TrEMBL record:
It comes from Eubacterium ramulus. This is Mucin desulfatase. It comes from the Bacteria. Residues 29-265 form the Aminoglycoside phosphotransferase domain. InterPro entries: Aminoglycoside_PTrfase, Kinase-like_dom_sf, Pseudomonas-type_ThrB.
Amino acid sequence: MATISPEIFQEVLSAYAWGEGTLSYNSYGEGHINNTYLVTVNGKTVTRYILQRINTDIFTDPKSLMENICGVTSYLRDLISKRGGDVSRETMSIVPTKTGSSYYTDSTGGAWRVYNFVENTICLQQCRNTEDFYTSARAFGQFQKNLADYDASSLHETIPNFHNTPDRLRKFKEALKADVLHRAADISDDIAFVLDHEADCSYMTDLLAAGKLPLRVTHNDTKLNNILLDADTNDALCIIDLDTVMPGLAANDYGDSIRFGANHSAEDEPDLSKVNFSLELFEAYTKGFLEVAGNALTPLEIETLPWGAKLMTLECGMRFLTDYLEGDHYFAIHRPGQNLDRARTQFKLVRDMEACWSEMNNIVSKYSK
């Protein structure tokens, strides 16, 4: 994204009614997609806001993106209010521009939005213990349960085919055929692993197409760092980063959490002996997720949760390997071969899951009672 000039920043600030007081701002958070700032208004009281410039290189249709976010957060506010919850802390709240719009387009075409800041919260970048992973499962389970009756078909696809595993396979095959950097000859085992799993790629999408699985509102980035925790109690309060909220499968959200959290290694760990799928963490997450969301899911949705874990991991590995073949232009790398290492960690996790497939299914069955 282009550098933001002071003039543009002042233009954006002028588009919002911040209230009386002295305005200050600084960069905020550890996100890599949007430009994020904390805006502080020092008046009779101190009020804080999150200001973001949306990355329109990735989210090319900010209007549709903001329609999704406004629709979902408005629905959540009504639901939380009806059950007597704290609307200011349990969901994100969009602050409109002076003209009432959900976002502002600056004179260079940049798209900006403002959220109320949720005070007295923490955001963890990684699990400190199994309890954190269990807490995250309950949080995303609650998100799924809260939106179970929301019409998912009314949402826009902010990134088309984001979790369309057969389409990811198609793109991998195209990159393999082109082999623009002549890297394929040195990764024959990795290529064979993907092609050997070709039949698996359409398992969930075929069930969806046959009407056997329902379309759900899915978050599509169910990592621990997208949950705000109460700073005093460590209870999960609010799911954030709703840019990828789209129609999808519940098992995808569950599976992406498992892919990310049910192991103790770095995503780019070159020593695969250190990469091991953890049944203990898998069970902790499954327990938390189904305790909250179980009654909102169909029996087949629950039964196919292990498939969500396997396919989200396989899909992510394919994406890393595709990028490696194409020249590392999508996922940023900091050393040669990093995307290849990332792909191999995912494939190792898939192998581990396949080795304990019956145990995974037994765990899901245990907590679906």
